[in-house]
Amino acid sequence: MTEEETYYNRVGRKIKGATQGQMFGKPCFKVGKKAFCCFYKNCMVFKLTGEWHQEAMSYDGSELFDPSGKGRAMKEWVQVPYDYKDEWALLAQKSAEYVSG
């Protein structure tokens, strides 16, 4: 397991009520049955909206998540590079809150 994936797991496990699962064949964390973050290409990917989506997109190297690689990005999902790992815990919390409704 890479340093990035280890850190991702540590962040996800700290979210109250989060369980591990799979989304598009990638490791993810869910609240209930709804995924709120996943790990892809050494980045943590978050489902966000509003100001938190804008914040995540403002980091250098962040991009909309396109798991197929075919130009069909998932508009609410932001892929945040490991360079911003210090932000991952807050973004994971905001993402979990978002999917919890």
Write structural notes for this entry.
By secondary structure, the chain is an alpha+beta fold. The chain has one domain (3-100): Aspartate Aminotransferase, domain 1, CATH 3.90.1150. The chain contains three helices and six strands. A six-stranded antiparallel beta sheet has the order 1-2-3-4-6-5. Helix 1 crosses helix 3. The radius of gyration is 12 Å and the shape is globular. The termini are far apart. The mean pLDDT is 96.
Task: Produce a short descriptive summary.
With 101 residues, the protein is of the alpha+beta class. The chain has three helices and six strands.
Describe the protein's topology:
Blueprint: H1 3-13, E1 18-23, E2 26-31, E3 34-40, E4 43-47, H2 50-57, E5 63-65, E6 74-81, H3 85-100
Antiparallel strand pairs: 1-2, 2-3, 3-4, 4-6, 5-6
Helix pairs in contact: 1-3
Proportion of strand residues: 25-35%
Number of domains: 1
CATH hierarchy class name: Alpha Beta
Please describe the biggest sheet, giving its number of strands, its sense, and whether it closes into a barrel: 6 strands, antiparallel
CATH architectural arrangement: Alpha-Beta Complex
Distance between the termini: 32 Å
| Oligomeric grouping of the chains | single chain
